[in-house]
TrEMBL record:
Role according to the record: Acyltransferase required for the direct transfer of medium- to long-chain fatty acyl moieties from a carrier protein (MbtL) on to the epsilon-amino group of lysine residue in the mycobactin core.
Domain Acyltransferase MbtK/IucB-like conserved stretches: 45-93
Lineage top rank: taxon: Bacteria
Record-given protein name: Lysine N-acyltransferase MbtK
Pfam families per UniProt: Acetyltransf_8
Family matches, as InterPro entries: Acyl_CoA_acyltransferase, Acyltransferase_MbtK/IucB-like
Record-linked PANTHER family: LYSINE N-ACYLTRANSFERASE C17G9.06C-RELATED
Pathway(s) this gene product operates in, as recorded in its UniProt entry: Siderophore biosynthesis; mycobactin biosynthesis
Length: 206
């Protein structure tokens, strides 16, 4: 399916914050433009809850996704997760990943050095972190995650000249995710005991 333009969405009963303009620290992710990938034309679109909540909640209730994100349940649970970011200062930007106009992944682009993650690894100023999930089963298991991670990493480095490295912290048990980051040029620098998991600290240098 292709993303609908704002104004064409169904009205939800939930009171949800609307995205801000995303000033620094992360910047205007929606203005980064598309990237060409082997899978098609890819771009990041900042989440608009009134348009995207039902789709994202559906993905979160997929058992494959819930194993690592732990957000299965009613839409209000996903709304709370999004709202915590959208009501903040722009240090974490939730986005849909669109491939040839089709929403197929969810991303969080965040300032890792300003995140609680910074307590668990030697953070450097302007580190940018990435969270990713592939929402559609048809897009899993064929190397697309690594392709998209390469594309998004290139966008981050292009639009954040002060960012010297990109950080990720997948669960060490999530072998597919760790492998995708490795294939995208990340290296495993360490492991860290986070409150909710043992994480592989993955770094990609500029």
């Amino acid at each position: 399916m292709s993303i609908r333009e704002p104004g064409c969405e169904d009205t939800l009963e939930l009171e949800l914050p609307r995205p801000a303009a995303y000033p620094a620290p992360v910047g205007a992710v929606g203005a980064w433009g598309p990237a060409a990938t082997a899978g098609g034309r890819f771009r990041l679109l900042p989440v608009e809850p009134r348009r995207d909540l039902a789709l994202l909640a559906g993905w979160m209730n997929d058992p494959v996704v819930d194993r690592w994100w732990s957000l299965a349940g009613p839409q209000e649970r996903t709304a709370a997760h999004l709202g915590a970011q959208l009501a903040g200062d722009g240090r974490s930007v939730p986005c849909l990943g669109l491939l040839d106009g089709r929403p197929m992944s969810y991303w969080e682009v965040y300032r890792a050095d300003l995140d609680p993650l910074a307590r668990y690894y030697p953070a450097a100023p302007h580190d940018i972190g990435l969270h990713l999930l592939i929402g559609t089963a048809r897009d899993r298991g064929r190397g697309l995650g690594a392709e998209l991670l390469r594309a998004v990493s290139a966008l981050v480095l292009r639009h954040h000249p002060r960012c010297a490295r990109i950080v990720a912290e997948p669960d060490v048990r999530n072998a597919a995710s760790v492998a995708a980051f490795r294939a995208a040029g990340f290296r495993k620098a360490a492991e860290a005991e986070l409150p909710d998991k043992r994480a592989a600290i993955m770094l990609r240098d500029r």
